[in-house]
Amino acid sequence: MALIVQKFGGTSVGDAERIRAVADHVARTRAAGNDVVVVVSAMGKSTDELIRLADEVSPNRPPREMDMLLTAGERISMALVSMALGARGVESASFTGSQAGIITDGDHTRAKILEMRPDRIREALDAGLVPVVAGFQGVSTERDITTLGRGGSDVTAVALAAALKADVCEIYTDVTGVFSADPRVVAKARRLPKINFDEMMEMAATGGRVLMLRSVEFARRHHVPLHVRSSFTWEPGTWIVEEDPTMEEATVTAVTDDTSEAKITLDGVPDRPGVAAQLFRALADAGVNVDMIVQNTGTNGLTAISFTVALTDLAEARAVCHAVKDQIGATSVETDDQIGRVSIIGAGMKSAPGVTALMFETLSDNGINIEMISTSSIRISCVVRSERVAEAVRCLHTAFGLDAA
Ligand code: ADP
Ligand code: ASP
Ligand code: MG
Fold first, then answer.
1. pLDDT digits (tens, 9 = 90+) for 318-331
2. Which residue, judged by its Cα, is nearest atom 22 of ligand 1?
């Protein structure tokens, strides 16, 4: 008998019919002799709707109250899924993140898990129940309710699977697995039967939102077998594996797109030691996460520094830059929220020359200008105009031979 954690995303529990379908599947898994722990997201787009509601009542979003508000979404779905299971004769009980023993730090809206104490979940399993846990939430050491960041139900599922030593963590979503590109952008994207952790982490970090990055990191660290699959067709999906399945295969495994960032450029910056340190220390102290950074070669002792931040951090980052501008002697701060990033990912590119050249040629042949470049040993990313991102993904997908026949 296996212990299976099954996580259902927003679309998968989007309405009563979907919740009944989920309950049917959980009941089938139980009937096959497995123990099941269910983790649910908020129904459909309800998290977005709650955020919109908050914006309507207040110009700012106090993080503690936002967490109180947003965790309500998962509370609704956990209770409904538990009731639907009951209606199928499957005994179950729902648990908030706090009741499930998910202890986090106090960094509201993006809390990190410090400790897992899933005693009540174990007790429920021992009593023959199916525990249904609200995803995306925990309780801080200060006893405040916290959330784990957007998409955080994936982290809840993986953390529970690790703590309970589950045999597999199944992530059910609205596509049939991890594809060679977002299937909503590239019609010819192919489902990957398996992908390794390195590649999956690069995908999750560059826009492949099918799995939240932190859940992939957590699964790798704790050796949790992850299986991404569809809650609509229930067919086998994509396994995230330790080994390198691309060894003998294509150089590039996937192409990702991301339009969730903005670019900030500081011009006329004195080209001397300590300037970048001052700027990025100020940003770090304000809690702004910086992604790509490019510094131009200096001329006449002056240089320009460009970097990207999440669109949601843009206002904060802009304020920090204006505050330190005079201190570091920059002449201007410019922001650009119309950028997008396209990335190619593949463990095979380590040993294949010409990948970068083909990427740049493909973009150039399609008249797409590259504004910034960053690389890792298994990824190349280019910043382009946001309106050209979808086209860039499609032509790179074709150029690297990834299109489905
Ligand atoms: P859930 O609510 O189930 O967590 P998400 O919206 O977070 O679902 O993630 C699933 C979505 O991720 C898909 O609908 C798909 O559009 C998107 N996606 C982006 N890149 C990929 C990819 N490479 N493979 C599969 N899905 C992807
Ligand atoms: N409901 C939360 C969100 O929309 C968490 C999740 O779905 O994973 O971000
Ligand atoms: Mg998700």
1. 999 999 999 999 99
2. 182
Ligand 2 lining (C-beta closer than 6 Å): 9-10, 41-42, 47, 73, 135-136, 150-154
- The per-residue pLDDT for range 103-114, each reduced to its tens digit, is 999 999 999 999
Distance CA 373, CA 308 (A): 11
- Residues with C-beta atoms within 5 A of ion ligand 3: 9, 151
Predicted TM-score of the model (pTM)? 0.94
Ligand 2: residue whose CA is nearest its atom 6: 151
Domain ranges of the chain: 3-174
Residue 405's pLDDT is what?
86
Share of the chain above pLDDT 90, in %: 92
Q: Which CATH class is domain 3-174?
A: alpha beta
